[in-house]
């Protein structure tokens, strides 16, 4: 019994000791730290300044709007509008009467090879077969054409044989007469701008790319304005970049109104509107610049025919001028044939007839189409387009 009591006492003592150890270990653990307080936010240092800006700003007295003295007579602020764009100065073109005569010297410088060559050959003491063959070669080289060359040589041989004497003056007169006859002085070379119905004359300008169609249309406007006509320009060349701008610039120089459409638009629509506005404005003439056509492209040529048909719904065409580059020689005749099949050509404009051009193309193209050369271009100047005059042209060929 005593042993049991002793064991119980020992157990109680041991349990008490263990409990004390556990409590002591718990008291020794540190408590978690308290949450940190909100940090103090300090403004960033101010940027350094120099001079007066480095001083500490001072409070200054401020005045109200009523206390501010306004200058005497001060009115409302006027905002000046930018000046309007100045209209281009309208030029007065050179009169067309006798223009080719005034430009004769320029033409003769490039054409003397034909006239002077013929005169030299005809002045030989003996005109044998070799000489006449050289005459034929000279004419053919000048692009006169085979058939016209044969006719001219036959007439010259007959008249020289009958004439007998061949002084320089007689030979020059003889050659001039035959060349004028060959060029065709009886042809009507008037650019018709008078409509039978009383409206404006309608002129359509056609040709291959690069012949100078747009420039010729602008120069023709100057010719008509110089003769006292009012002109409307139709920029129906909607496929070549800046063609409409180029034509409008030509028109602005002489006060001609230009009708244009969007780039790449329908050229027939532009041509139709140009004729319509020309009638409404009671203009004397409407000039329609068409897009350059490759004579070998059937689709493009068909479109040119469409432009012609659409224009004729407004008014009949009075002139269809074909622009040819004189420097292309006989190649220009191929172009002329194709254009004549699509539109009824009524007149020819020969450009670039100065320089190395061959004057005989005038005869060849007239024979090919049966229509007259009405205008010739002799240079890059604005007034270098001249009405064709057979006598003045031949005089330029053979010289004084």
From TrEMBL:
Its main location: membrane. Residues 372-385 form the SRP54-type proteins GTP-binding domain. SMART domains: AAA (SM00382), SRP54 (SM00962), SRP54_N (SM00963). It is found in: Cell membrane; Cytoplasm. Residues 49-63 have a biased composition (Basic and acidic residues). InterPro entries: AAA+_ATPase, P-loop_NTPase, Signal_recog_particl_SRP54_hlx, SR_rcpt_FtsY, SRP/SRP_N, SRP54_GTPase_dom, SRP54_N_sf. Keywords: Cell membrane, Cytoplasm, GTP-binding, Hydrolase, Membrane, Nucleotide-binding, Receptor. Residues 25-63 are annotated as: Disordered. It holds the Pfam family SRP54. It is a peripheral membrane protein. GTP binds at residues 207-214, 289-293, 351-354. Its EC number is 3.6.5.4. It catalyses: GTP + H2O = GDP + phosphate + H(+). It is an enzyme of class 3 (hydrolase). Belongs to the GTP-binding SRP family. FtsY subfamily. Part of the signal recognition particle protein translocation system, which is composed of SRP and FtsY. Involved in targeting and insertion of nascent membrane proteins into the cytoplasmic membrane. Acts as a receptor for the complex formed by the signal recognition particle (SRP) and the ribosome-nascent chain (RNC). This is Signal recognition particle receptor FtsY. It comes from Streptomyces edwardsiae. The lineage of its organism: Bacteria, Bacillati, Actinomycetota, Actinomycetes, Kitasatosporales.
